What does this fold into?
Amino acid sequence: MRHGGQILVDQLVAQGVTRVFSVPGESFLAALDGLHDSGIENIVCRQEGGAAMMAEAQGKMTGKPGVVFVTRGPGATNASAGIHIAKQDSTPMVVFVGQIARAHRDREAFQEVDYRAVFGTLAKWTAEVDQIERLPEYISRAFHVACSGRPGPVVLALPEDMLSGHADVADLPAPAPRPAAVSAAQIAAITEALHTAQRPLVIAGGPGWSQAATESLATFAENWNLPVAVTFRRQDRMNNDHPLFAGDLGVGMNPKLGQRLAQADTLLVLGARLGDIATDGYAILDPTRPGPRILHIHADPDELGRVFHPALAIAAPTAEIVTALAETSGKGDWTDWSAQARKDYEAWQTPAATPGAVKLEQVVAWLAANLQHDSILTNGAGNYAAFLHRYYRFRQFGTQLAPTSGSMGYGFPASVAASLQNPDKTVVCMAGDGCFQMTCNEMSTAVQHGAKPIVIVANNGRYGTIRMHQERHYPGRPSGTDLANPDFAALAQAYGGHGETVSNQADFPAAFARAQASGKLAVIELKLDPDMLTTGQSLSQVRAASLKQ
It folds into this structure.
């Protein structure tokens, strides 16, 4: 006989889970007890949003569900930000939520929440386990659903009286390996379509990639001389140094790449959903009007034809399709097309100078030139991230952790998870002053568990993205976007980390070296000019342009 918490944890062991993230709560005490002697590392976080983001990052890095435990009511709703990221980013994740005792349901008992209603549109599947004997069944299904088709988050609610009860039940094994699902006919259909293309463009993105798959993509591109673009925050799907890499279809994309997307007659979409970000709000490609021929490859058949009509739709794992395509070859009359795509990318990488003594474009360029190629870069959301997207070059798979959902606060928890998962690699979190303060309390988590990311805080004293939009629509009338900030270096030191402040560009390399040598959590605050706003325009330039209109 085992109590429910022990049954649950034994099932996690059977699923191969080695690390979970949590904020403890009285609603799942039995699960905490089960974790005590399990060998599973429990990363104790400071807020459920940060815990869920760490679990999501774990899922991104490993391809296996990240696991998080949160308590009922406010604990669960705090975690919703991380669940939303996992949904939009197609990341496998399993969320265990404490729940009130079954006998108290439907009385609005203390912290009672209907989780099926709350998470019904955020998660792939939400359920409540009422019978202790069915815990292995529910957990097995949760891991299957989280990984199948288009991966995503699953939420399991655990009534506390169920979890503390006892039963004699057998464990269930982890999901069985899935055999390859790619046929010769599918590959032939893709290559036959490419043979008739004049202006082809490969678009790579989505989940399910590996270093081997990215190398296969490069081989496939070389064999066909095809230009390859990647979707928003999926820049590590191909070595950015490769002569056929054309850039990213993200927020603030290279206008020349946007034009190329509009001019392409054949799009081979590998694993991506091809949504509003990649198409600039459906302005470049409009799903209601005729457009280029789309060859869409996605693991989930429900994603095929969901928005854009595909001329060819193949439901298959991206990595397996790319591996098979690497064995093919062919040439079309698009040599100049591919060469120009690369020239446009390299021209876009030439930094445009920003105002001030510290220049974010030069910081990112220095990182791109000096970091080891296996270094992991994380970020949340904000104008600062555009500098990373535009000027950094990702050379290996698994080196970019960023939310395609555009969630602020993600970068730092993700960097903690990345450092724990990869203790021998350099992990750098790029953050804005607003973005960092949403989750900077997790510095305590980092120090407690030995994570040592280096956080570079771009401090311009405002929510820069919103201020940019204000200046474009309501020039000279800022409202609600200025920030009063702490001394970020001193804050890091107060948590037990290393802190530096950089006010002059020439001081950055030495400051980074000291942060790296400290061997612990480090924060480098960049004192940016308040006029610094975007990669292309200063605040005063944006305002002036808006006033002329």
